[in-house]
Amino acid sequence: MGVVCASGGQCLNAGYLTVQDTLDSLLGRYELRIPNKEIMSEFSAITAHYLHVDENSIDVLTDKLPQKDWKGFLRGYRKILMDTISYFDLINENSYQTLLLGLLMRLGNAYEISSNREHGEGRYDILLSNKTSGEPSLLFELKYTKDENIDLTKLAKLACDQIIDKKYDHDMQNVIKVGLAHRGKQVEMYVHA
Q1: Residue 164 · residue 177 · CB < 8 Å
Q2: 88 CB burial (10 A radius; 0-12, 13-18, 19+)
Q3: pLDDT tens digit string along 38-60?
């Protein structure tokens, strides 16, 4: 396996990340991107290694999204949550967002991947903006609860409704909205095309 950088700055200096956009130079906030397919492949290998899964398992999972195989994606995502991640690592919404972003990195050739960007009347969690004209983009909103009394299916729908209510897809064409609701290693999904 290749180089693992302790911080974004080290990865930037080593050439494993490049600056795509300056968000706030005074605060040192930049939008970074992976510069090429070889490094993208290395980051994917690191993700698979960290999750203790083979890269093919991640490929099978991420291949379900462009195919719009929502049940297949959910089945694969549940398997990764059950088989690879410690319950103690899944402590808040950000834990799941970081995990999902790591898994989705494999789609970087087909999608522009971004997260936590202000858009519409708020900040979306994850956007996979399709690089192919006419093909749908995917906008994810994640929710997390510890409350055993909350119905995760309803919470996933609320996540999807938030995308619509907050207009996270403002000025975007052909966007599929995906709500994911988590509790521990449980997850439910709601999709609005």
Answers
A1: yes
A2: exposed
A3: 777 777 677 767 666 777 777 78
